[in-house]
Amino acid sequence: MTTSADTHDSIRAVQWQGDHLRLLDQRLLPGEERWIDCRDAAQVTQAIRDLAVRGAPAIGIAAAWGVAMAAQQGVPLEPVLAQLRAARPTAVNLMWALDRMKKRIAAGADAGALLHEAQLIQDEDLAANRRMGELGAALIAPGSGVLTHCNTGSLATAGYGTALGVIRAGVAANRIARVYAGETRPWQQGARLTMWELVREGIPARLIADSAAAHLMKSGAVQWVIVGADRIAANGDTANKIGTYQLAISAKYHGVKFMVVAPSSTVDMATANGEEIEIELRDPAELLSSGGRRVVVEGAQAWNPVFDVAPAELIDAIVTERGVIERPDTLSMQALFGH
Ligand code: MRU
C-alpha cells in the first residue's frame, strides 16, 4: 500500500546486494544513472572519498555496509574501521556508524550480526527522515516559500531525506508553495542532485545561483531556509555545506527563519562548539574547473573549504527524529541528547 510518506520518494542510492554494495554514482548525475558495485571495504572507502556516495547519513550507512562486508569476507576489521574513518573528516555520521559497528564487534558479533546492524542503521535513518519530515513541515505556515542548500534528499540518506524530507512533507501537506534550491558551488550538489531529485519526484522547484540568495530573501518569496547538517555540536552550532553560514546570516537580516534538519546520528555532544569541528578542505581543482573543463586561467590558485559552521544563535529550529529544539543552546541540546 502506498502511504503519503511514500509519495515523491522513489530513489534508493545505497543498496546492499547480499555480498556487495551497490551505489548510484552521484558524480555522473544528472547526465547518467550508473551504478557502482563495491566488492570490498577499500572500494567503499574510495567511493566515500571521491563523492560517488555523499551526504552525511549516506556515508555512514555505506561505511557500515563496508565493515559488514569485510566481516563476511573474513578480513581483519581493525584496519577496515580505521581506513573508513579517515575517508572524510566533517560528517560525524561516518564516525557514529563506525563506532556503532565497533561496539558490536567488541561484543563478539559475527558477520551475520554485523550485516543485521548495518541494515538497522539504514532502516533507522529512513524512519528518522520520515519523522523529521512531519515535525519540520508542522513548523511551516501554509503558503510559505523555502530555500534549501546542497543535497539532503534520498541520495544523501537512506531515503526521503533530511531537509528535503521536510520539503517533501511540506509540499504534500500544502504548507510549502514555493521551493528554491541553491546551486551549491563548487561541486553543485544543488544543481546536479537536488534539482534531479525534485524534478524526478514531481516537486516544482526553481534553481538559483548561490549568489542570488540574499536578493531572493529580500523579495519576500521565502519564509524559511531549510538545510541539513554534517555535524551538530553540543551547543547547537551546525556544520553543513559551504555557503550555509552566509545563508544563516542573510536569513537573520531579512527576518527569514532558519531550520536545520538532521537525525540524532549527526549530533556530536562530544564536540563543545563549532570551533572544534574539522572543516574538510578539498582539492582546489574542484573550484578551478566546471563540468570537467578548466574555467580559470592556468597558474591561478584557489582555497576550497567544503563546509562551514552556522552558529546556534542564527538557527531558529533544529529538527531531529527525537523532537524539535527551538533556538538551540547547550541546555536545550542536553535536554534532548544528554551530556
Ligand atoms: O560534501 P557532501 O556532498 O557530502 O555534503 C553534503 C552536505 O553538506 C549535506 O547538506 C548534508 O550532508 C546534510 S544532510 C543529508
UniProtKB/TrEMBL annotation:
Q: Spell out the reaction equation it catalyses.
A: 5-(methylsulfanyl)-alpha-D-ribose 1-phosphate = 5-(methylsulfanyl)-D-ribulose 1-phosphate; 5-deoxy-alpha-D-ribose 1-phosphate = 5-deoxy-D-ribulose 1-phosphate
| Keywords assigned | Amino-acid biosynthesis, Isomerase, Methionine biosynthesis
- Residues annotated as catalytic: 230
The reply to whether Isomerase figures as a keyword in the UniProt entry is: yes
What would be an example GO MF term here?
Answer: S-methyl-5-thioribose-1-phosphate isomerase activity
Q: Does the keyword Transmembrane apply?
A: no
Record InterPro entries: IF-2B-related, IF-M1Pi, IF_2B-like_C, Initiation_fac_2B_a/b/d, M1Pi_N, NagB/RpiA_transferase-like
What is its EC class? isomerase
Q: Where is this site: Transition state stabilizer?
A: 150
GO annotation terms (biological process): L-methionine salvage from methylthioadenosine
The EC number(s) this enzyme carries: 5.3.1.23
Pathway the protein takes part in: Amino-acid biosynthesis; L-methionine biosynthesis via salvage pathway; L-methionine from S-methyl-5-thio-alpha-D-ribose 1-phosphate: step 1/6
* Residues involved in substrate binding: 54-56, 88, 189, 240-241
Superkingdom is Bacteria
Q: Which family does it belong to?
A: Belongs to the EIF-2B alpha/beta/delta subunits family. MtnA subfamily.
Q: Which HAMAP family match?
A: Salvage_MtnA (MF_01678)
Which PANTHER family does the record associate with it?
Answer: METHYLTHIORIBOSE-1-PHOSPHATE ISOMERASE
Summary of the function given for this chain in its UniProt record: Catalyzes the interconversion of methylthioribose-1-phosphate (MTR-1-P) into methylthioribulose-1-phosphate (MTRu-1-P). Also catalyzes the interconversion of 5-deoxyribose 1-phosphate and 5-deoxyribulose 1-phosphate. Part of a bifunctional DHAP-shunt salvage pathway for SAM by-products.
Q: What name goes with this protein?
A: Methylthioribose-1-phosphate isomerase
Provide the species name.
Rhodanobacter sp. FW102-FHT14D07
